[in-house]
Specification:
By secondary structure, the chain is an alpha/beta fold. Helix content is 33%, strand content 25%.
């Protein structure tokens, strides 16, 4: 089954219902489907052939979902790009995937023009809103388009999406996701859930250009719930929408939830009550959520937070904290249905239960590799297994614990220091809103431990207090030798802390001392 058939299946299973709410606009699943069939017909009229790439550059809006469905129906490959990317990054992606068509929005046309100066070229540009005089607009194209009655035939192994990695460790890589991969990932998620999501009201705030957000959006076809879509993350707006629409579920990254806590504290300090009593489920993924922060969040907002683990290369789910199963602090839950997980040593041999090693996974959701990068594909995808680059272990009950990214491991004086262990301890200090721990070169010890700390508004803490707290809870070699206070941590477009940038910053700051 291909993604192009999910909309019809959704209509057959659930009938016509209100599917999406966006800034006052309410759309049914049928209305979204009809728009996508007309856009699919228009794309074919523009000469889109099976396998051709269509680049999407927009903030979250209904047209993104319509465009995905239309591209798949017309037999094309969707190439979403975060609107926060720089022009040269967009040009690289456009050239690398050989995109023929761009669908964007009017406020991003200046960036498109800058990308053209870096070599980006598109045969056709469509603008999502009705404010462009330079290019055809989606409202006009959809209104005049002839519906494509049936999807162009595609196989499970055919490409559906090219998702480019954030590029925090180098040039972005195009992760190939097939129709079979994404359908399998959605079914894995459905099979791993112990609830009927048809009555859910989900808040869709994750970027639809990111693997996590795309996975949540595609899952809506099978779960049948209603989604309230946000253009981008705004903490106060999130809280307002939860109250207004009685939202029952939200998926986000740790930075979003930490931002919600800070916002709620500020609102209540100003005498404005916050009500999130309708939310039953908070799903967190894409980056580790410190247990201390998770506990504070649940106590403050109610509901239960479910921790997930995945990668773009897994479309994206690998493991999840499941409803009805015991929670184990620090665990990302059990491997998802349809996914096998192993822990292996540096030679690829399985290790004993409870021992640390690299996490590898296999399943129908695993990508076939990186576009045009044979050596990188060969390193990460071996004998049907995805080598994640994450260090972790499986306990006696099969729960997965992620300890650290391999590249973030600090080796101080021959001892392994896992930044997550140190960050968990630092987060126990109530004054700390966020923190990140990195390693920097040291001429004697090999590496030294450095902590970056963001304080909560109105609180005070000094480096000595942080160090004393760490010494009271950690072995001496794990204690940060340097503590830097910053107003914010560098993050990419989906809220992941960019530790590579922190390592650069630390090297610069320490060189001055």
């Amino acid at each position: 089954m291909t993604l192009a058939k999910l909309a019809e299946q959704n209509l057959e299973q659930f009938g016509v219902y209100e599917r999406l709410i966006f800034e006052g606009e309410r759309l049914t699943n049928l209305e979204l489907h009809e728009r996508s069939t007309r856009l699919a017909g228009a794309l074919r009229e523009l000469g889109l052939s099976p396998g051709d790439r269509v680049m999407l550059l927009m903030t979250n809006r209904p047209e993104v979902l319509v465009s995905y469905a239309a591209i798949w129906r017309a037999g094309g490959v969707a190439v979403p790009a975060l609107f926060l990317l720089e022009a040269h990054e967009l040009a690289f992606i456009a050239e690398n995937c050989q995109a023929r068509i761009l669908i964007t929005s009017s406020e991003l046309l200046p960036k498109v023009g800058d990308a053209a100066k870096h070599g980006a070229h598109f045969e056709h540009v469509l603008v999502a809103d009705a404010t462009s005089e330079q290019y055809p607009t989606l409202p006009d194209v959809i209104a005049s388009g002839k519906p494509l009655e049936g999807p162009i035939a595609r196989a499970d192994a055919d490409l559906a999406v090219l998702l480019y990695t954030s590029g925090t460790t180098g040039r972005p890589k195009g992760v190939m996701q097939t129709h079979g991969n994404l359908v399998a990932a959605t079914r894995n998620s459905q099979a791993s859930s112990n609830r009927d999501g048809a009555n859910d009201v989900g808040l869709l705030v994750l970027p639809l250009a990111h693997s996590f957000g795309l996975g949540v959006a595609v899952g809506g076809y099978l779960f049948g719930g209603k989604s309230v879509l946000m253009r981008w993350f705004e903490p106060k707006r999130v809280l307002d929408l939860i109250r207004e629409h009685r939202v029952t579920a939200m998926a986000g990254v740790p930075a979003m939830y930490i931002g919600l806590m800070a916002c709620a504290e500020a609102l209540e300090a100003a005498g404005q009550p916050v009500n999130t009593s309708s939310v039953e489920r908070w799903l967190v993924g894409a980056a580790p959520m410190p247990m201390e922060q998770l506990a504070r969040f649940e106590e403050r907002f109610g509901g239960r937070m479910y921790v997930g683990y995945g990668l773009t290369e897994a479309c994206p789910g690998i493991a999840i904290d499941r409803e009805g199963y015991p929670r184990k602090p620090g665990s990302t839950g059990l491997p998802m249905e349809g996914v096998d997980v192993r822990i292996v040593d540096d030679d690829g041999r399985p290790v004993a239960t409870g021992e640390l090693g690299e996490v590898i996974a296999r399943g129908k959701n695993i990508s076939p590799g990186y576009l045009g990068l044979q050596s990188e594909t060969a390193r990460a995808f071996r004998d049907g297994w995805l080598y994640t680059g994450d260090v972790g272990y499986l306990d006696e009950d099969g729960y997965l614990f992620i300890v650290e990214r391999k590249k973030d491991l600090i080796i101080r004086g021959g001892f392994n220091v896992y930044p997550k262990d140190v960050e968990e301890v630092l987060h126990a200090l109530p004054e700390i809103l966020e923190c990140a721990v990195v390693g920097v070169p040291h001429e004697v010890l090999g590496e030294e431990v450095v902590a970056y700390v963001v304080l909560r508004a109105g609180t005070r803490l000094d480096a000595e207090q942080v160090a004393l707290h760490a010494q009271a809870h950690l072995a001496k070699y794990k204690t940060p030798a340097h503590v830097f206070f910053v107003d914010s941590l560098p993050k990419n477009g989906v809220g992941k802390i960019m530790k590579k940038e922190l390592r650069k910053l630390a090297a610069t700051q320490l060189a001055r001392e």
